[in-house]
Fold this protein.
Amino acid sequence: MPLLRALALFLVTLCLASPAWAEVHLQAAVDQQEAFVGETFTLQVQVEGDDAPPAPELSALTDFGVEARGGQQNSSESVTIVNGRMNRVSHRGYVFTYGLTPKRAGRLTIPPLTITIDGHPYQTQAIPILAKKPAETNDFKLRLELDKARAYVGEPVTLTVTWYIGKDVNGFNFNLPVLNDPRLMVSDAAKTPTKANGGDLLRIPLTSGEILAEKAKGTLDGQNYLTVSFAKTLTAKEAGQLTIPQATVSCQTVSNRSLAGRGPMSGLFPDDFFGRSRQTMRTEVVPSNEPALEIVPLPEEGRPSNFSGLVGSYSLALSASPTKVKVGDPITLTIQVAGPAAASANLPSLEEALGPKDFKVPGEMSPGQGTIELKTFTQTVRALHPGVRQIQPLRLSTFNPITGRYEEVSSSAVPLEVSEAKMVTAQDAEGAEPVGVTKGELKAAKGGIAYNYEGPELLFNQTAPGGAAIDALWLTLLILPPGAFLLVLLGCLLVRQRGKDPEGRAAKLAYQRLQAACLDGQAGTGYAPLGQALRDYLGASLRRNPAALTYVDVEPLLLKAGVAPETLDRLRQVMERCEACQYAGATADPQALTQLQAMAQQVATALARHLR
């Protein structure tokens, strides 16, 4: 007995002490230590000794724009057998990935970053970064243009971004600090790009999500360029002189051929012996101009108390259906606000506008939906009496920047026909009295009404003392042995079943994780979790290492398994999109990510029919 107690104490101590054996180490690494202002590079925070650590504290990175690119486990386990002795080595780790963009030129420092694990703080080492000021060249130019140089607080201003391209590029990335400027509200432009002048449309990634851009031809300073342009709407929150911060676009261009190993006859052989090109790629960062914008405050004189906050030219429309009703019948109102920033419009109180004595208006109002320039509200109201003859015009107070005065836009009145509702009485509910039927008095049934005798004197206790307890005890004794046997048998079957096909079980678990990633509604982490779940499922099903799995690796195996070409094409699109957004540092657009998740779910369902 003392021996068993000592053994149990040892096991408990071993379990409690085991986490301390895994010593935690932190290390920071960057893919480059020199970057242009506005050029994004990669920072990784590597955690050794913990595969589920909290995220590091990043508030000290004041000289850099920070973009989270997700994280993933970096754990492994190896077993070696030497002279019959087995040695198992386990490694637990996690890697956080971020995109950093220098905000100013000079010698900057990535300070030590802290992660607190089990109450103990751990820090990375500091990393020096040389941030260089980008310079404009004849090959590339970037221009920011405002549609007006002076605007009121709350007045929408269109910012057009145009990149002039004079030579071939291979990949690019825009950096627009104005998107995160706290002095401005930034939204999509009202007008979407169209195919004009023989141009084309393309989607480009921004930190706020993808945006539709127009590719066309243009001229700047007498030189012809290929142009890529898109627009955003800026709305200032406060008055003052505002300078749009410098934007940049980084791109990969073809540099001069490598001079290494050049000889007298090297000009005859532009490529090396194996046919590989001697061309090298270089990164160029193109800076923009910094346009100024004067923001004027709205005048206090003449400002109405019910001012909506809308600045610009707006219109208001009202319709109702049906218009011929009884008192209390529902009437659906459709209210439309049109204008340059209609998406931010809010309705005035309908109860006050329609009259609380004439209409019953629900307490919760419709939030409205629509486009940037047209917002539609739908609301149900009910007339309270037959004297209601119309729905009064709705009014909205706005500010007109052209005239510099507050104006009131209104809708037209909607005529109604309201009739009295039929009152249902008790007689209506019971039914009308039949005509020509004479009432007769109730007569007693011959022999009277039979009934059962009842009374407390007829009640007596028929339960034996302790009978319920005895029945429960017998029932327990009868059920317990076979139930315990069935549980043991079920456990043995599960253990045997799990041991039969560990690869198949791993593939099933990976499939479940992939389905969960396809249904995940939180897109803040981007495309990395979806791509990782898809690689894990393919790796487990095809018995391959998922870490570096690409579409090129899995295509021949899936063709051999009988997967249809249409499914393979969708798989290629999903994997390429996930890889492109993960390594280009773009934040996931929620709508685009939802569409990609739906396609990934279709692919997973189709693959499951062949990969079993």
